[in-house]
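During data preparation, we tokenized the protein backbone, and the record follows.
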Amino acid sequence: MQIAVISFTKNGKELADKIAGCLSEEGYEVTADIKCNGARGSITESLGEWTGRMFRKCYALIYVGAAGIAVRAIAPYVESKTSDPAVLVADEKGSYIIPVLSGHIGGANELAVSLAAGIGGTPVITTATDIHHLWAVDKFAQENHLWIADMAKAKRISARLLAGEEIIVDCTCEENRIKGEPPEGIRMVDSQSQEKEPDICIGIHKNPSWRHTLYLVPRAAVVGIGCRKGTDAGKIEKAIERTLNREGIFQSSLCKLASIDIKAGEEGILRYCRNHSLELETYSAGELLKAEGEFHASAFVEKITGIDNVCERSAVYASGNGRLVVEKQVDDGVTVAVAQRDWRIIFE
């Protein structure tokens, strides 16, 4: 991951180089620039231009200098806590490391703690849940690679925890896949055994009758796909979208598409994957025969591909022989099935 550091004086540059060295040892790719008239190697672009360029491509930006400089520089580029990079400020002596943007999801708080330990400074953490030692839903989601479906609801969860209220959480993974103990204020339940909707649901499905629930979504769904040769991406898009909507599965839960190897060059499937930043995995008929479970057999499909079912077998095999949650669906010549791979959550 890339981190960009910038300073504005000679003393600041010395600390910036120290920061760069410290972070490089932790495996980050770090650049350290200076913006200072007369300083050797000073960047020629404006601070705003530098910030815009780094904001788009870096995991974190670190400003060595006054916090106001950083705030004014990043202001035009701030969009969302779910996508903005971590932004930190360090004073020239390295006494204090202050996260100013994306403390939880972007990792600024964690980076500040780690960096402060490396250079002998003090992290200044200001997020309310941290200073009160409460569970933070956005940090939990980030650590467990969960997509937050509604940031407004996430903020309300934090506000309720700060007010001392209990938060009810329903996690749809197997009980033995929940590691660690839920922290104070969090009560785990099984939605099948309760009438009240939970405050948080962790899983790939949505419940249309739950209007106030915050969904945290793992990337655990694998779509098995089959189609006629030359099927365009639009048909594939509609077939998958209709299947997910009908079954109440979040699009954001998809982690990959899978099919038989003769579809490895199918442009419609490949374009769908590119459009949604998904990987396509293909397997031989022999490999797909190893998929475990009962599948809808088709003599026609077997005649063409050498195997009785493509979409269901592909989904199950690519998910590590996970659970088939959507059986074969046929939509305008496209066959779709969905399997859920094994996943877990960890309370630290």
